[in-house]
Amino acid sequence: MKFFLKKFLDLIPTLLGISLICFFMIRLIPGDPVLNLVGERGVDPVRYLEMKKALGLDLPIIEQFWHFLKNAFHGNLGTSIVSNNSVWFEFMERFPATIELSLVALFFATLIGIPLGIYAAIKRNSFFDYFLMSSSLIGYSMPIFWWGLILILIFSVKLGLTPVSGRIDLTFDIPLFSGLYLIDTLQSAVLKADGLKPFWSAIKHLILPATALGTIPLAVIARMTRSSMLEVLGEDYIRTARAKGMSKTRIIYIHALRNALVPIVTTLALLFGSIITGAILTETIFSWPGIGKWIVQSITSRDYPVIQGGVLIISFIIIMTNIIVDVIYYFLNPKMRN
Amino acid sequence: MSENLLDIKDLNIFFKSDKNPEPIHAVRDLSFSLKQGEMLGVVGESGSGKSITNLALMGILGDGAIVKARECSFNGRELLSLKEREWQKVRGGEIAMIFQDPMTALNPFLTVEFQIVETILAHLNISKSEAKNKAIELLLQVGITSPKDRLKSYPFELSGGMAQRVMIAMAISTGPKLLIADEPTTALDVTIQKQILTLIKSLQEKNNMSVILVTHDLGVVSEFSERVQVMYAGELVETGNTSDLIKNPHHPYTFGLLSSRPGAVERLAKTPLASIAGIVPAFHQRPVGCQFNPRCVHVQEDCKKGSIPIERGVRCLHPMMEALS
Q: Is residue B182 a part of any domain in this protein?
């Protein structure tokens, strides 16, 4: 219990640091949210100052930061300059899309990556092993925006198999329940109206962005599983298991895999951070209406509250995942329980 | 047919290596036998091939190893021609093994109960609850108090000595005919060593089990095993009845080992302990002739060519005749 309390206390300075850096960084970029709002032709100076005052941007920068912190602490992340909606509302509107994309990407990366890694470890130095390791290196090195465009080019443009952008065909009317279309399209009302068509449409829309986003995690997970598995297979207790007459399958799945999973779980957590960053690129390329696209748009329009608030929420989520991983770790590794 | 439980004739073990085109010859022409219920001590420095021989007897040397022998029969069966499934029955069932470091030899993620019970279930045709009761019984037998609580423990919650007792309980759980104990006390405190060895000895007598006790401690061997064989650089250099061999070593290497023991020979206070100069030659740079010749104080010209046969239990052209005292 103390362990988790400490983890939570660590959260505060981290979040403070992140908001500090983010707050000042965005103000270092040339550009002015007010000018962005009124357009290039400009506005008369009196009106300009009025608008600045209304947004609180006329105050000294330290004071602005203080206001931001104070409000954030009260749970108020501010209002978007562009849309006049609250940052929290805007975030919640888009977050399910990102979660859906990230989870599907991570799910398939794990589902494919772990067995591939195990197999490569068992067939060490075989053709399959070399093939897998070199292709994972390629997968790891491919820039997401390039890979995403190539996927669109092949599967959408040339083969016409998948849609180019969006989350679902606009012809379907999906009442929002969880915000995850893979779930919402299975609601009885939707099933009655259109059958499984919306569901398939959602899947079709997901395939390419999830592939683009999941490629790097897949490569990392496969490599990590392989090396972790090889390390465990060299341990003394694996020799003991063999000396006890255990079958190869039992040794791999009962005696080795669980132990090898510990570093993989950590990797998954670290990957979650990189998936969110990857989502920013992927969502922009595939016009996926999630928080990645949202943040990029808000940077372009210098929507300070959205950037600050959005980054703060994203960091909070990433830190929370790390804490959750510690919890999983706790249950995986008996040593932690003492 | 012989009445021996284990009969090894001309066992050779090679390792394929990436660096050398020729496989490394790790164990050469090793022959020995073991009767039912007998304890054999195997002594030698690191790199002498003791552990490799044991792993070969269990068939768990790994992919890079080539094992050849004229005969390698256990309980009337030829081990080297076994298929993987048959091996799995032998391992843990008929031949069990305990290792040097009990703390790393037990799986840190599985409870003691899980590890013992799975061994029993793999070899004996009994139910899970019967296996659990048997596990409790076994833990009592190896001297673990409150065995029910200990079953729930994870290996890191045990002390080294207790972990080794668990290993022993696990090894004897299936009633094996042969127990291979590979330096079972090296990683343990000196105070625990004797308890563990006494335990192994008593189990050997009670279950009429054969034991191969590997150690680098001649003192241990002299106390516990009737017969001993000394290995050096992958070869058997001397073998015989333990008390005879200790009183009257014929091979200069055995002599060296014996005189390196504290108190073995009289020496002045504060003079360094006797030791054998040099180290065991690496696998890929073994000398021609007697393997011990670069370190031997009695070396002669004919020791440096050809292979040396083993005669009357000694692989030496100029065996030593005088007693150690």
A: yes
Query: Domain limits at B114?
Result: 37-43+85-304
From residue A215, alpha-carbon distances to A77, A117, A226, A229, B101 in Å are 33, 14, 17, 21, 42
Question: How far is it, in rounded angstroms, from Cα A328 to Cα A322?
Answer: 10
Closest chain A residue to B152, measured at CA:
A334
Residue A240: closest CA among chain B residues belongs to which residue? B105
For residue B133, what are the contacts with CB-CB under 8 A and spacing of at least 6? Answer: none
* Chain B environment of A230 (Cβ under 8 Å): none
* Chain B residues near residue A334 by CB distance under 8 angstroms: 108-109, 154, 156
Cβ–Cβ under 8 Å, residues A117 and A221: yes
Chain B residue nearest residue A259, CA to CA: B109
* Domain annotation covers residue B311: no
What's the structural domain count of chain B?
Answer: 1
- How far is residue B301's CA from residue B281's CA, in Å, rounded to a whole number? 19
Q: Examine residue B76 and state whether it is found in any structural domain, yes or no.
A: no
pLDDT tens figures, B76-119: 899 999 998 999 999 999 999 999 899 999 999 999 999 999 99
Least CA distance to B59: which residue of chain A?
Answer: A243
B212-264 per-position pLDDT tens digit: 999 888 878 888 888 999 999 888 999 999 988 888 888 888 888 888 777 66
Q: Which residues of A touch B (CB under 8 A)?
A: 235-237, 239-248, 254-255, 258-259, 332-335, 338
What single DSSP character describes residue A83? Answer: T
pTM for the whole thing?
0.79
Partners of A247 on chain B (C-beta within 8 Å) are 88
Relative orientation angle of helices A291-300 and A87-122, to the nearest 10 degrees: 130
From chain A, pick out residues whose CB is under 8 angstroms from the CB of B163.
Answer: none
Q: Residue B297: give its domain's CATH number.
A: 3.40.50.300
Query: Is the minimum CB–CB distance between B262 and chain A shorter than 8 Å?
Result: no
Q: What domains does chain A contain, in order, with CATH numbers? A: 87-337 (1.10.3720.10)
Min mean pLDDT across A24-38, A99-113, A130-144 is at A24-38
What is the interface pTM, i.e. ipTM, of the complex?
A: 0.87
